Amino acid sequence: MNNPRLNTMFGYANDELSGRTIEILIPDAIRGQHKNHREKYNERPVERYMGIGMELNGKRKDGSIFPVEVSLNHFKVDEKQYAMGLVTDITLRHEAEVVLRRSKQELEELVHQRTAELKTAESTIREALEKERELHALKSRFVAMASHEFRTPLSTIMSSVDLIGRYTEEASDEKVDKHIGRIRNKVREMTAMLNEFLSLERIEQGQVQCNPSTFDIVDLSIELIEELRQLAKLGQALDYDHTAGERTVLLDRQMLSNVITNLVTNAIKYSPENKPVKLSTQVEHDRLIITVRDEGMGIPEEDQQHLFERFFRGSNASTIQGTGLGLNLVKRYLEILQGTIDFKSAPGNTLFTVTLPTKLAT
What we know:
The chain folds into three domains: 4-89, 2-Layer Sandwich (Beta-Lactamase); 119-204, Helix Hairpins (Orthogonal Bundle), CATH 1.10.287.130; 213-357, Histidine kinase-like ATPase, C-terminal domain (Heat Shock Protein 90), CATH 3.30.565. Helix content is 48%, strand content 21%. It is built from seven helices and eleven strands. The strands form three sheets. A five-stranded mixed sheet has the order 6-8-9-11-10, covered by helices on one side. A hairpin with a 5-residue loop joins strand 2 (56-59) and strand 3. Helix 5 packs parallel to helix 6. The longest helix has 80 residues, at 91-170.
């Protein structure tokens, strides 16, 4: 084995490889394995490229390893079998392939990254568009609802004002008081509706903050029931009871007032005359439980899954004034208060149950 180009490639002096086997040029790790392959080749020699589908390496005299490409040919001289190998140093090609693979990998990673960024951007745009559509629909529904809901109490107010003018001339105090009462109620209805819209907007804008304070739940409940009695229909009794035990809670008083007021107002609104509405409170195992029960029309089963959606009105409530925001606001307030709300309803009996902690972190 002697060739000037081979000597130069592997770092040997002239004639230094004479009489040596090819294994001297093979890395130590596969030298024994290569000897077996060589012996088998000598038994059945064929022309071929070695290392197809895998990397071949050579070992220089100084021990350094470098990539090579090898092709073999066999021939006979005087009936004696010989093999000739063509060895090519492919270091530069190998380095170029490494650079190419690295560039390809970096490009694939960049494409993957940009694709992910585009998907995120697309998702963000879709969410923004959906919110925009939702906001547009919300505004449209508000305009339609407000124009309808405000018109009725305003008409009542104007009518009562006209009648008061007539009754004043006739000096009928009883009739004057009747229409003054109607005006007050309609003004309260409009004020409540406007407050619901304002509350919804503040919650949507993240402007509602929880401000816990210590107060007596019984005192608050009695105060609210007394305020709401003036909304009760003829013969409608508003009852309240508290199960004996702890009465002090640490919660946001205004939010809880809004929750109770909405639930009791709904019970009054959707119940007929001469039917009671009952508010109950109870403190049990550091949980405040509030229930509101009425004997009204009930909530149709097909409407129950939509009950807490914005602007939703039950199919049996089309003749009753309301914004459809009350229960949605109740649910949002309870989320802030770390509470939950459940209900059971059938014709003639509806029960709402609110459960929340008795103490919030301050």
